[in-house]
Amino acid sequence: MKKKFTILGIIFTMIFTMVVFSACGGGGEEAATDEGTESAETVTFKQGFDKDFPPYSYIGDDGKTTGFDVELAQAVCELNGWEYEGVPINWDAKEAELASGSIDCIWSGFTKSPDREPKFAWSEPYSVNTIKIMVLEDSDIKSAADLAGKKVGVQGSTSAQEMLETPNAEGGAKDLRDTFGDFPAYDTYTVAVNDLKAGAIDAIAIDVTTGDYQMTKVDGLKYLDEDICEEVYAIGFRTDDTELAEQVNTALKTLAENGKMDEIGKKYPEIYENLSMIKK
Q1: What is the domain class of 130-231 according to CATH?
Q2: Rounded to whole angstroms, how far apart are CA atoms 72 and 23?
Q3: R_g over Cα of the chain
Q4: 3-class secondary-structure state, position 135
Q5: Which DSSP category does 150 fall into?
Q6: What is the pTM of this model?
Q7: In what order do the strands lie in the sheet with 52-53?
Q8: Long-range CB contacts (within 8 A, 24+) of 101-104
Q9: Residue 154 in 3-state DSSP?
Q10: How far apart are CA 24 and CA 26, in angstroms?
């Protein structure tokens, strides 16, 4: 009887041990699942930007994407604990890219215009800008009136193109555009400036912040005195992404208050004075 009892005890101990280990294994699996869920919830923020729109976003001499907007987006992600992903886009397709979900926002010197305002959820404007006409220093074009019959280039799908195609009664400058002989749209302002230097076009409609940057790279350029119109830059989100827009907006305000935006802005002196959220 004693031997039989001992054998039963051993069997009971083995069964109990198996149950305990099985329970522990289940807990480990649950922990792994929890860890996987936590990992899956990590936010990746996808900034859609024009890779040839200096100094806001562009490819640097080292081959890396940089610019004020790129660095500011990275600072927002660092502050919010998000993973940053920069997505260079064809600027003409920016709205389609946003609608498809391949990017979370349009953030690259993006103008908040009356026409665009209802199409997006917006951040607070962070930069003010002016659209002007750029010509060669030795050009015989001295004023906007001299643009009649001339070939004036612009980057396609930019606010400069939009405003010159918007009626004056709606805040645009279509009356001026109607005097041009031609109004070709370029893929980038870099190409437009090259054509201006080569004499293929007579002038360029361009925002001042981008134009100022071009002038640091290319000699012999100047603006006409008249301003075409003024604009503000902000970040455009899908209309149903108001929560994301607010999270980014809150982060921008924090970066403006803690000095980080000022630190980034000083790297880009061409636009520093235009940054409207910084107290200078």
Answers
A1: alpha beta
A2: 49
A3: 28
A4: strand
A5: -
A6: 0.75
A7: 52-53, 57-59, 65-66
A8: 102/46, 102/48, 103/46, 103/47, 103/48, 104/45, 104/46, 104/47, 104/48, 104/237, 104/241, 104/244
A9: strand
A10: 5
Q: What distance in Å separates the CA atoms of residue 272 and residue 280, rounded to the nearest whole number?
A: 9
Any idea where the domains of the chain sit in the sequence?
44-126+234-274, 130-231
Rounded to whole angstroms, what are the CA distances from 9 to 6, 13, 223?
A: 5, 6, 96
**Cβ atoms of 224 and 112 closer than 8 Å:** no
Rounded alpha-carbon distances, angstroms, from residue 53 to 49, 122, 191, 231: 9, 20, 11, 16
- Give the model's confidence band at 279: pLDDT under 50 very low, under 70 low, under 90 confident, else very high: confident
Q: Is the pLDDT of residue 51 over 90?
A: yes
Task: With beta carbons less than 8 A apart as the criterion, state whether 41 and 97 touch.
Answer: no
pLDDT of 11 reads: 41
Joined tokens for residue 91? 């600027």
- Give the domain 44-126+234-274 fold: D-Maltodextrin-Binding Protein; domain 2 (3.40.190)
Taking a C-beta distance cutoff of 8 angstroms, is the pair 51, 59 a contact?
yes
CA distance 32 to 215: 56
Of 154, 105, 203, which is closest to residue 162 (Cα–Cα)? 154
Asked if residue 183 lies in contact with residue 164, where contact means CB atoms within 8 angstroms, the answer is yes
pLDDT score at 40: 55
Can you tell me the mean pLDDT for 3-26? Answer: 42
Terminal-residue alpha carbon distance, the chain? 94
CA distance 253 to 99: 27
